[in-house]
Inverse folding.
């Protein structure tokens, strides 16, 4: 048996079935194909999750033949299963290999030349802008686009066309975390880094299935726990996930009630005098439930509604867990919170983020190694490309806002535009943007590196919006099975992953470069070049998009961020080539990068002679905010008609809509199709056995799925994954959004089940 075959089998054995037992599914070995030893290794970043693991791609005779973890990046050479199996995706023959056109609605896609495709596209956009105004065109991008692609699209639409119709899937993902950081601390993005894991003595993991969604970080947490005695892990999640199986305490609260849980923990902390008054008196202001300044006494009075005996009933958990969690959180030498979609994808997503920050501010568990509120990021470039780049409808690059006249003027100057070119009107958020497409207010849209026809909520409605006969939809898409292509009038063929070079910014403010390792298929082009060509043909001045390649775009983006609190001027392309990732702020070429933001002596944005150790410079008086956000419940709670909670989640083997991971036989076999997780109590009541076909019904639609009866879901909760393109589970979910972040509530709706 040759070594690649052995590796293959070893990795297969580590897949889903083994995950629970081993705690993770990790490979530190190279995954090689049978094509022999590489003659060079090219540095890059994993294509998948926001962990942002560094990879080395082994190339022989122009073909990628091996992949291994980059020992010099934060992952120290480790990769998870998906990451280590990227080569079969890269080398897959099932690709969009050339531009395609649908000459009439309802017809078939047929090949078209690049020249005709771009000419048609530019003409359609130009005509739409001339006839209906700039707000008739839109960009819907992705946290998987390269930084250079996202930056360029933003510049073309906001600065060139003069519309803020620029959105992307981070709205479905990180918008609530952005809202949380900006309202609590004044600036987006975490203050800590992954290295905090190695110093933390208590982990508060809430609404994150780290073991399946961020496996390499989970391994780091598990290693910390093994190597340091006394390290505690609290997991708060209505499902008994693989993550919770290594926890000292699993709090399986009723979905949505985590706001009450966290307020109640704050109550215990104050009543047992576990708070850090020296910290909060100096560094914290309080905000009342009405959004007006308040004080500590008001906060203490507000928390009376969440006394543990009441909160425990509401959350449906033992009261003792609240006390114990509060004590562990406050008393541990260094507490690190980690959270993800269980917190963000909620109508109270921003509020839930604020309440995590509250606990850190109340206890002073912040700004020391291991003490930090750390939001885990989903996609590989949601942070670097979309959040930092300001590629959402209300933002401008590097922390600037559309609504701020000074910020617009700054961007107009930087982009060499006449005053007033950038529209002062924030564009619609994602759901509203697709609704505008359905109404015909938006007529031309580019969808890039995202598959909304499978991933937006309330899909029956979205299908109608995407089917507007008046619309012109362009999809830049690498794989032909993405179902969004069914709605595209034009499909453009991109260079994929390491077939072009560019920067990803992962969850710890770290920017890493993926260098071009292999040539794309002959008719596939880097999206940066596609966008430049499109913009020129659509009539934008050539000097406005004077970029030969991604490096040119990167250098402009460095300049645009220079002097802001996002400063990464010091990250030259040359430096990124040499080093395995750098963490901003990084204002000059000799700067090593920043491990702790807001801390004097660590963050270059805090003056060295500042009188205080901490300076939350994003807020007017340099103090962070504790928010009194009442628990309100989900948009759709179970009732007599639909008595169960329904949630949606990820599985370790698949990436979102499966267009990539379903091409890897090992991953496909490990988890071939959608299912519904049901607790044994609920299954028995409905007369359902394991593997029975079950009808899952909500107010929107119904689907028939095989049952997985297990103790994973708490009683009263059922859960479905969304990777299976043949079972569009998002038809079941509602499109209620958080009024503050406009992120949809994918994590909670009401459902009923019966045996099919
Ligand atoms: N394998 C794999 N990894 C991925 C991805 C992938 O597709 N596949 N996608 C990446 C992306 S873009 C993202 S955003 C991340 C997502 O990473 P995670 O957020 O960790 O993943 P999910 O499984 O969507 O949701 C996490 C948990 O939220 C819990 N939850 C449900 N309701 C509630 C609630 O009311 N409160 C709380 N606190 N929790 C609740 C669910 O039970 C679930 O276990 O994963 C990234 N990593
Ligand atoms: N029910 C439910 N729905 C959810 C969620 C949930 O938890 N529950 N989570 C939401 C979240 S957090 C997210 S981030 C979204 C993700 O949702 P999407 O972004 O829609 O899902 P992906 O499958 O990641 O889509 C990426 C697309 O880009 C294509 N692609 C891959 N590589 C390239 C490339 O190099 N260039 C181009 N142009 N295309 C490429 C892929 O084939 C795929 O079609 O889903 C959201 N939807
Ligand atoms: S943890 Fe995420 S970034 Fe790292 S190898 Fe796995 S999928 Fe890739
Ligand atoms: Mo995400």
């Amino acid at each position: 048996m040759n070594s690649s075959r052995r590796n293959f089998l070893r990795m297969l054995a580590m897949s889903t079935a083994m995950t629970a037992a081993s705690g993770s599914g990790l490979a530190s070995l190279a995954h090689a194909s049978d094509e022999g030893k590489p003659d060079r290794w090219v540095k890059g970043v994993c294509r998948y999750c926001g962990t942002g693991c560094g990879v080395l791609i082994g190339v022989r005779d122009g073909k990628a033949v091996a992949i291994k973890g980059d020992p010099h990046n934060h992952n120290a050479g480790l990769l998870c299963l998906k990451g280590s199996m990227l080569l079969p995706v890269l080398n897959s023959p099932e690709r969009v290999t050339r531009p395609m056109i649908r000459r009439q609605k309802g017809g078939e896609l047929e090949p078209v030349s690049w020249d005709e495709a771009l000419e048609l596209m530019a003409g359609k956009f130009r005509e739409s802008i001339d006839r209906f105004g700039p707000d008739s065109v839109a960009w819907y991008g992705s946290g998987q686009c390269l930084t250079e692609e996202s930056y360029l699209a933003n510049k073309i639409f906001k600065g060139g066309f003069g519309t803020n119709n620029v959105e992307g899937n981070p709205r479905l993902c990180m918008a609530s975390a952005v809202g949380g950081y900006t309202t609590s601390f004044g600036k987006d993005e975490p203050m800590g880094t992954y290295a905090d894991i190695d110093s933390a003595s208590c982990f508060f993991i809430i609404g994150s299935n780290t073991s399946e969604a961020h496996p390499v970080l989970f391994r780091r947490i598990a290693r910390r726990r093994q190597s340091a005695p006394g390290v505690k892990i609290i997991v708060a999640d209505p499902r008994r996930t693989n993550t919770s199986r290594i926890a000292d305490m699993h709090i399986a609260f009723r979905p949505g009630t985590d706001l009450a849980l966290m307020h109640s923990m704050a109550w215990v902390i104050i009543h047992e005098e576990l708070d850090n008054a020296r910290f909060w008196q100096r560094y914290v202001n309080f905000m009342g439930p009405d959004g007006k300044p308040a004080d500590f006494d008001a906060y203490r009075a507000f928390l009376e509604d969440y006394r543990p005996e009441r909160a425990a009933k509401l959350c449906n958990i033992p009261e003792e867990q609240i006390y114990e969690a509060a004590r562990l959180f406050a008393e541990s030498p260094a507490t690190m919170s980690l959270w993800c979609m269980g917190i963000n994808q909620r109508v109270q997503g921003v509020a839930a983020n604020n309440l995590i920050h509250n606990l850190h501010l109340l206890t002073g568990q912040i700004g020391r190694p291991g003490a930090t509120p750390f939001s885990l990021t989903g996609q590989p470039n949601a942070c670097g490309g979309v959040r930092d780049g300001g590629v959402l409808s209300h933002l401008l690059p590097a922390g600037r806002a559309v609504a701020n006249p000074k910020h617009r003027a700054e961007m107009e100057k930087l982009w060499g535009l006449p005053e007033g070119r950038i529209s002062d009107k924030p564009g619609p958020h994602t759901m509203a943007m697709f609704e505008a497409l359905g109404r015909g207010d938006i007529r031309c849209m580019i969808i890039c590196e995202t598959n909304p026809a499978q991933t937006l909520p309330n899909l029956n409605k979205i299908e109608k919006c995407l089917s507007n006969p008046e619309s012109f939809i362009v999809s830049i898409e690498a794989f032909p099975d993405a179902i969004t292509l069914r709605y595209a009038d034009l499909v453009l063929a991109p260079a994929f992953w390491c077939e072009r070079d560019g920067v990803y910014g992962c969850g710890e403010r770290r920017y890493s470069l993926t260098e071009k390792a292999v040539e794309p298929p002959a008719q596939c082009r880097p999206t940066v070049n596609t966008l430049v060509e499109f913009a020129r043909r659509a009539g934008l001045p050539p000097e406005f998009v004077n970029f030969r390649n991604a490096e040119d775009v990167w250098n402009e983006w460095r300049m645009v961020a220079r002097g802001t609190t996002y400063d990464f001027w010091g990250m030259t392309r040359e430096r990124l080539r040499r080093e395995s990732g750098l963490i901003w702020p990084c204002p000059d070429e000799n700067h090593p990068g920043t491990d702790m933001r807001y801390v004097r002596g660590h963050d270059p944005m805090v003056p060295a002679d500042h009188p205080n150790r901490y300076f939350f410079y994003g807020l007017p008086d340099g103090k962070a905010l504790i928010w009194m956000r009442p628990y309100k419940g989900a948009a759709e709670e179970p009732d007599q008609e639909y008595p169960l909670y329904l949630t949606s989640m990820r599985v370790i083997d698949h990436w979102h809509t499966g267009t990539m991971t379903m091409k890897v036989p090992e991953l496909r076999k490990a988890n071939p199709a959608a299912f519904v997780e049901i607790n044994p109590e609920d299954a028995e009541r409905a007369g359902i056995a394991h593997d029975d076909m079950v009808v899952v019904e909500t107010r929107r639609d119904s689907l028939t799925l095989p049952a997985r009866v297990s103790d994973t879901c708490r009683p009263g909760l059922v859960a479905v994954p969304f990777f299976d393109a043949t079972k569009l589970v998002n038809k079941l979910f509602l499109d209620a959004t958080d009024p503050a972040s406009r992120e949809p509530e994918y994590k909670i709706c009401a459902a009923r089940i019966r045996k099919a």
Summary: Residues 1-25 have pLDDT under 50 and may be disordered. Residues 46, 48-49, 51-53, 75, 79-80, 82-83, 214-216 surround iron/sulfur cluster (ligand 3) (CB under 6 Å). The longest helix spans residues 114-132. The two ends are 46 Å apart (CA to CA).
